[in-house]
Amino acid sequence: YATLRAFPSDGAKHCYALPVATRARYLLRATFLYAGFDGDDAFPEFDLYLGATRWSPVVVYDGARLVTREAVVLAQSSTVSVCLSNATTGRPFISTLELRPLNGSLYRTDAEARAFLALAARINFGAPSPDPVRYPDDPYDRIWESDMVRRANYLVDAAPGTVNVSTDKPVFVATSERPPEKVMQTAVVGTLGELTYRLNLNGFPGDGWAFSYFAEIEESVVPETRKFKLFIPGLPDVSKATVDVGENAPGKLRLYQPGYYNVSLPFVLSFAFRKTNDSSRGPILNAFEIYKYVEIEPGSPDALAMASLASRYTSLGDWANEGGDPCWPSPWSWVRCSSEPQLRVVSINLSGKNLTGGVPPELVALSFLAEIRLDDNMLTGPIPDLAASSNLSIIHFENNQLTGSVPSYLSSLPKLTELYLQNNKLSGYIPKALKSRGIIFKSVFFPSYTILISILFQQRLFK
């Protein structure tokens, strides 16, 4: 964490586009270590976005403490965009951005096409040190935070009689979410019959994914039982199942993973595991994970077409690599969007960007366009059919190398007020329908054919 990248507080979004395999599941992690890089008295506060979806706020309270945001994401396309935006204080910045492929069965949910999982807590109980467990102990590089790490309102109110236990024997973990063996070799036990904790869950209240990980790792000389129930104040529906580690696992040194794929949890979570009357041992807890479901915002319906358009020019400058949704939470620098009733691209301004090749065919798919400015480039080929963009009022194609004739559909665009086509290689006659609308033309006529030099079509007289 010796370096970071900071961005201006300019109201724009700043994105990274990560290549992924479509329909594959990934662990995505962003970290932020401020360390007073800008010498400002105000700690930074800004938003983190996944595409058009607000993933989480990033609020720095302590410049020396690492802020981490982690999510499990099912890739919907060939890229995943992570964006920083909406700085309220300080400058947006990022220290690391990590992408880890997951086993195809891990964290599969019925809602993953419409929501991703944002991590609220992943804790290794009974840890021997404050150090986290991650790769290579966890092949997926999940970070299992030690329960020895203490901070305000996090893992407080531990019950008296809570002790650490551990084993150096192998624990079978090759099932369910596959927590690392090193995590499952430690645990806490409620020797007085109860385990209790309280912690704040980042991003909650809301609907979440919550699972506990148990393994019987204590040795016993005579047969003993370990049965206990989960209790959460105010949530009676999740406070009734009995955990019998020896029976459910089944057997010692094997993973048992009970939990809920969809459960409503509060911001302040208090919970207890309490032994049943027929249990000879107190409850055990090796680890748990809690994620919040974050509903995926669809963003602009024009996003795919715009991403395709921008991909044609990625070598021409940063403007073609801005990433994220073209409209949300802020539009690309060369784009304007409407917000009602949907986020739609209404204006594209690529004047003087050294564009080559034909006029981008993606323009045809942008049916809400009102303004196109592609002048002062090196575009070739014909003017495409933009008849579906009935809102077009301004078209600037001048100072290119376009060929072919002036399309007749231009006369049917009801809102057209500016049409600039001069200094191209267009040929043929000006459509009569355009003339009938009282358009002022400038052209040069030759005996055998007409070469169109310019058309200036505006609602004012040119002299």
TrEMBL record:
Subcellular location: Membrane
Classification via Pfam families: LRR_1 (PF00560), Malectin_like (PF12819)
Major place of residence: membrane
SUPFAM superfamilies, alphabetized: L domain-like
GO cellular component: membrane
Record's bilayer topology term: Single-pass membrane protein
Domain Malectin-like intervals: 1-292
Transmembrane portions of the chain: none
Protein name, entry field: Malectin-like domain-containing protein
Native species: Aegilops tauschii subsp. strangulata
